[in-house]
Each structure stands twice: as C-alpha cells, then as structure tokens.
Write a structure and sequence with these properties.
Blueprint: H1 5-8, E1 13-16, E2 19-22, H2 34-46, H3 48-57, H4 60-86, H5 90-95, H6 97-120
Antiparallel strand pairs: 1-2
Length: 122
C-alpha cells in the first residue's frame, strides 16, 4: 500500500473509534498588544489583501508584534516629549493632582491619534 502525501511528509495518525485522524497542531501565536490588535482590525477591514497575504505566509504575528513594539515606543517617547514641552512635572502632580491628570489625559489622547495615524493606518 502506498503512503499518502501526509505520511510521506512524516505525518502521523491516531485512531478515534473507526476513524484515523491526522495528528495536527496549530503553532503557538504570540500575544499581541493593543496596538497590534488595532493594526489587525484595520487590516481586516480596509486592507484585506495584505491581511490575507500576511496570514497565509505565516508572517501576520511577527508583523503585528513589530507594529505593536514600534507604536508603543513612539507613544512613550511622544508622551514624554509633550509633557516636557507643556511643563507638566512631578511638582504639578504633587500640587494639583486633578490638573495633572487632566493635562496628561489630553496629551495621551493627542499622542494616541498621532500614533494611530502614523503607524496603524499606514
């Protein structure tokens, strides 16, 4: 009896009742952060061909991880720079916590828009 293509590629089977089922495993996926998840949603909705190409080539997870790292680095750097430009320092945090929180939230929102436009949507 000839071996199937699956068996020629060193595939194995297991018996379940009267059936032989192939022993298949799915590769572990890397956890992706919030920026990678946003990129995935963008690709699924607006760049379907690129999404499918990355998925079929097995490069989607590495692409999303790379985008997530780039976006997180850019976000942290821009928040720090904008906080320094606005004069938001730790003394303000100690003196007026609510003002500090409000100003930092404004900065974080602005930076989130910048990162989304520059990295996620390109």
């Amino acid at each position: 009896m000839e071996k199937s293509t699956f068996e020629q590629m060193d595939g194995t089977y297991r018996q379940v009742g009267d059936y032989l089922l192939p022993n298949l495993t799915v590769p572990e996926s890397v956890p992706v952060g919030i920026w990678g998840q946003r990129r995935r949603r963008y690709l699924q909705k607006h760049r379907k061909v690129l999404y499918n190409a990355l998925l079929l080539n097995g490069k989607l997870d590495s692409h999303l991880t790379d985008i997530d790292q780039q976006a997180e680095d850019m976000f942290s750097q821009l928040v720090k720079q904008m906080a320094e430009q606005e004069g938001i320092i730790e003394q303000l945090k100690a003196y007026s916590q609510m003002e500090w929180v409000g100003r930092m939230n404004n900065i974080r929102s602005a930076v989130e828009e910048i990162v989304t436009t520059e990295i996620i949507f390109t």
